Every structure is written in structure tokens, then in C-alpha cells.
Amino acid sequence: MHAINNMPSVPTNCQNDLYGKLRHAHVPYSRLHDTGGYFGGAHYVDIPNVFPCFDADENDPESYDFAFTDALLSEMCANGIKPYYRLGVTIENHQYIKPYHIFPPKDYEKWARICEHVILHYNEGWANGFRMGIEYWEIWNEPDNQPDAEDNVMWKGSMEDYFRLYEVASTHLKKKFPHLKIGGYGSCGFYAINSVDVSSIANSSSRTEYFIEFFVKFLDYAKERKLPLDFFSWHSYAGLYDMVDFAKFPRCALDQAGYVDCEIHLNEWNPSFYLRGKMADATNVLANMISMHSSPVDMMMYYDSNLASPYGGIFNPIDYSLFKTYYSFYIFGQLYALGNEVECSSSGNGIFALAAKGENGGAVAIVNYTDEAQQVCLAAEGIANETAATFTVDEQNDFCKTEDELSSILLSPGCIKFVKFGDF
Fold first, then answer.
1. Cα→Cα distances 148→145, 155, 230, 322, Å
2. Is the peptide bond before 311 cis (omega within 30 degrees of 0)?
3. Backbone phi, psi, residue 118, to 5°
4. Which of 70, 135, 153, 371 gets the most CB atoms within 10 Å of its CB?
């Protein structure tokens, strides 16, 4: 639930050891999309960046430019953060001036072979490469982001053009690398749903309903041709309670289509980017992580940890200090590292809690998602008050140790508490 998109800065300029801060938060994955900024920074990740001349020989290592992507992925792996590689292009927000890379490839088979060589470079040492063991390879991003969109367009082809690209690329890559997870397509999301029953969704030309139409027809296409789909990815910038409902829809639809083992990844989400830097954003983010932990979603990837992104709510781009939201990731990461979820529930509306234990102790995270102070009694069997240490994140405290009685923990409005038992 606490994976991310991108990294805070280029690896040669890691101010304040921000990579290390993510390592300490046990961030498991970072999805590489919009990496480097507009047009992929011209050098990172995107297929047109690592393979600049499409007419070149895809079998020749000299046709590829891996330099910046190598540096980025090497630093990620050194900090224990696994790359989640999006095969495709960065969004072109101002494509109405001129689109560059968001057209369908002129040769789908060759595009698939180029992707094959990218995988060979990072996983099998090809072209003076690496053995990083990157598991997840995502084919494109938001190909449904096109109708009535003047700015955020990702695909200058038809729906059927994308289906064909996915068919060619997924089939080729799965044949070459049967042990890897191949999927897509970074759906724009399910804002228009009114039921988890796929058959009840009416096709429409409106933008959000087109996202649903695209998804339903994609599944029909994939099912008919028995295409590989190890994971399905989608996006949401909606609020907490809507996201929980949205998550049910792709799970139900995939099961109905026979893809019962397909993972679902909410690999772009950010419920409160407009609150960037504020305590309310930290509360919102951790409440979402806790809530979605019990949803059908297998992985969530917050958008974005990039310093230059207006969606980057983890680090302050001015002085490289930590925004309050960093501690949401840090707290969830401590639970994640413990390894075993413990049954935990709250009787109060607007109070979210999640607990975990490991070999040397346990912990519980508590979020007050209300605008009123809340008194909480933590009833944990077999645990004495003196064994607990409480840490607070609120307007005055940045994960500071505070004195709290387990029988009477006071949470100010929009406050986060982390109660730790044992030595870990």
C-alpha cells in the first residue's frame, strides 16, 4: 500500500539522502512513469528515450541509450526499492501544441522486440546490463485518456489500436519471459461506475464513462484471444470512500472474465494533492492506506515522490525537508516490515487503525480522520502500558515521542498516533 511513483531527484543529486528516507520507510516499489518530467526528461525510461531512433537495429546495443535510466535504477536497487517499469511514454500535457511520442508505434512487432531488449538489459545482463530481477512490466499508460481531453492525452490511436499493441507486446514478452509479470494498462479509472455488475454499465461518449467502455471492451478482447494479463493497473484521484468502492469494480470484472489470478494495482493515486505539505494530507494518505489494505487491491503506488511534480507530497522541493505525509509512509512501512497483520478494529467512525507484529514486537497505527478531538482506548490483550512507546504526527509534532496512557490516548483533529511495543 505504500509503493510510489518515481524518485525524489536524479541519483547524482540526492539532497538530504532522500533515497535513504524512502529506504527507512521500507518503500517496496517505485513505478517509473513520467520519470524525469516532461517528455521523460528526454533520457529516462520511455521507449523513445532509451531507443531514440525507431528505424535503428533493435538487436544492436549501440541503438540504445540506457545511461540515465541505468543510474536511476541502480540507485533505487541500492536502497532496496524495486523498479516497476512502465513500457511506453510520458504523458504530454500540452499535446495540443504538438504531440511527439503518444502515437501508436509504426511497427508493433518491432516495438515489442525493443521492449524485450530493455528487459534483457535490466534482468539478463544484455548490453553491459544488470540482473535486477524486475518483476513488473506495464504496457503503456492511460490509453483511454483521449476523448474530449485537450491537455492530458496519452494515446493518439484508437481503442482498437491499443488492444492490438497490447496483444502483440504481451504475447511476445510473455513467450520470452514466462516468469515475469506482464500487464497494463494504467486505466484512467472508474469514476463513472454505479454498480460492480459489469453488465449494468451503459457505454457512453462522455469522458469518464468512456474509461469504463474501454475497460469492458479490453477485457472482452483479452478474454477472446486468451491474452496474458498478470496484473491490471488503474488510477484514482478520488477521495477515500470512493476509492474503496472503485476497487471492487475491476476485481469483479476480471473474475467474470476468467482472470481470477490477475493482480490489481492502483498504481496512481493521490486523494489530496491540493493539500500538499499540510497535516490534512498526511492524515488522508494514511487513512487511505489503512482502508485500502483490506480492499481487493494488491498494490497501491502513490503519485508522486518526484520533487518537481506538483503531486509530490512527500518531500519539500524548496529545502528537501520532509512533508508531514512522509511520516504516513514511514508509519505504514514500519507495520509492513513487521510482516504479520494483527486483527484490529475501531468502534469509532472516522478512526482508522491497523496493527502488525514481528519477532521482536508489534505496533498499531491510529488515524483520527475527523475534525474533532477523539479519545481512544487501546485495548491490546497481554500488553502492559509500560511496554509501549507512542509517537505523534500532528501540527506540532513530526513523529515525536509523546506520553500517552493506552487507556486514554488523545488524538487532536487530523492526528496520527503510532504505538510501538517491543524493540524493533
1. 9, 13, 31, 38
2. no
3. -65, -45
4. 153
| pTM recorded for the entire structure | 0.94
* pLDDT at residue 405 in the model: 87
Identity of residue 158: S
Q: Enumerate residues 6+ apart whose C-beta is below 8 A from 162.
A: 104, 140, 143, 155, 185, 218
Burial class from Cβ neighbours inside 10 Å (0-12, 13-18, 19+) for residue 312 reads buried
418 has which bridge partners? Answer: 365, 391
pLDDT in tens, 337-387: 999 999 998 887 899 999 999 998 999 999 999 999 999 988 877 666 667
Whether 267 shows a pLDDT value over 90: the answer reads yes
Query: 250-262 pLDDT, tens per residue?
Result: 999 999 999 999 9
CB within 8 Å of 149: residues ≥ 6 apart: 207
C-alpha distances in angstroms, 362 versus 24, 243, 336, 420?
A: 17, 28, 11, 6
**Cβ-proximal residues to 98 (8 Å cutoff; 6+ apart), any chain:** none
What are the Cα distances from residue 405, in Å, to 13, 238, 239, 375, 414?
43, 36, 32, 11, 19
Cell 454498480 maps to which residue? 195
The three state secondary structure string of the chain is CCEEECCCCCHHHCHHHHHHHHHHCCCCEEEECCCCCHHHHHCCCCHHHHCCCCCCCCCCHHHCCCHHHHHHHHHHHHCCCEEEEEECCCCECCCCCCCCCCCCCCCHHHHHHHHHHHHHHHHCCCCCCCCCCCCEEEECCCCCCCCCCCCCECCCCCHHHHHHHHHHHHHHHHHHCCCCEEEEEEECCCCCCCCCCHHHCCCCCCHHHHHHHHHHHHHHHHHHHCCCCCEEEEEECCCHHHHHHHHHHHHHHHHHCCCCCCEEEEEEECCCHHHCCCHHHHHHHHHHHHHHHCCCCCEEEECCCCCCCCCCCCECCCCCCECHHHHHHHHHHHHHHHCEEECCCCCCCCEEEEEEEECCEEEEEEEECCCCCEEECCCCCCCCHHHEEEEEECCCCEEEEECCECCEEEECCCCEEEEEEECC
When computed from its CA atoms, the radius of gyration of the chain, rounded to whole angstroms, is 22
Q: Could you give the CA distance from residue 1 to residue 222 in angstroms, rounded to a whole number?
A: 27
